[in-house]
Amino acid sequence: MRNVVVTGGSRGIGLGIARRLTQAGFRAIAIARKESSELTSAIQETEAANPGALKFVPFDLAEIDRIADLAKRLRIDFGPVYGLVNNAGIGGEGTLALMHNSQIEQVLRLNTLSPIVLTKYLARSMMADGGGRVVNVSSITAFTGYSGLSVYSATKASLIGFTR
After folding, report:
1. What is the rounded CA–CA span in Å between residue 60 and residue 53?
2. Beta-bridge partners for 133
3. 3 state SS of 145
4. Which residues in the chain show pLDDT less than 70?
5. If you ran DSSP here, which 8-state letter would residue 138 be given?
6. What is the DSSP letter of 146?
7. 120: how many CB neighbours lie within 10 A of its CB?
8. At 33, phi and psi to the nearest 5?
């Protein structure tokens, strides 16, 4: 069973992606700060049909300096990682002129820096294992912008540039 890491996998789009991956025969490893009730239910449902296909690893992706250790731990605990879905993100709503610098930094750290660094470490082992896949989830706001979401839009546009 090939392993695919899904960040922001505890709810919403990330959990939906993780569920679809398990249905397609992959082991989805959901990364999020904490386990949601939706993820707990999904793990229980998946366990009945496909034991071990959906796993949860708690991790705060804003802790950039610990991402290398996360990548090592994933390989030790689950074996080679075949795929990565960089889905985690936060919005950081607010008028730019009134946003605290710390809020701007938090959005940049989670939405831009974190997926780049995680990809760096997981791609190393993917290449050593003969290949893999990386999917970066962006947003329509990367192209259109949206009032009150300038920083979020910038981070999602940066993901498009990173992907290309």
Report:
1. 22
2. 83
3. coil
4. none
5. -
6. -
7. 12
8. -65, -40
Pick the closest to residue 38 from 61, 57, 17, 15 (CA basis). Answer: 15
Euclidean distance between the first and the last CA atom of the chain, given in angstroms as a whole number: 29
Q: For residue 156, which amino acid is it?
A: K
DSSP one-letter string for 47-85: HHHSTTSEEEEE--TT-GGGHHHHHHHHHHHH--EEEEE
Coil, helix or strand for 93?
Answer: coil
Q: pLDDT tens for residues 117-162? A: 999 999 999 999 999 999 999 988 888 888 888 999 999 999 999 9
pTM tops 0.85, yes or no? yes
HSE-CB for 131 with a 13 A CA cutoff: 0
Alpha-carbon 134 to chain mean position? 10
Active site residues: 152
Contact 82, 3 (CB under 8 A): yes
